[in-house]
Design brief:
Elements lengths: L1 H13 L16 E4 L6 E10 L5 E6 L5 E4 L4 E3 L1
Antiparallel strand pairs: 1-2, 1-5, 2-3, 3-4
């Protein structure tokens, strides 16, 4: 894909290696809370997926039916 080549060119141009860090992992139906940042968000993991880069993301649904996508670093299992 051309976008992949563009990302690789950008990463190489920066002169810094791309570093993946170990993140916590969650399963669908896990009850989690987002504690980082300016707001809190509690709910159940309803989907988990990997971005093209390989980074994991989690879709969390709260009691009001609001969906939000988070990284594992932002979430804590309750």
């Amino acid at each position: 894909m051309e976008n992949d080549r563009g990302r690789a060119d950008c990463a190489n141009a920066c002169g810094q290696p791309i570093k993946m860090t170990q993140e916590p992992t969650f399963e669908v139906n896990d009850y989690v809370v987002k504690l980082t940042g300016d707001y809190r968000f509690c709910g159940h993991v309803v989907a988990a997926f990997s971005k093209i880069s390989g980074a994991r993301r989690y879709v969390v649904e709260n009691a009001d039916g609001v969906l939000h996508i988070f990284s594992g670093k932002q979430l804590t299992k309750v």
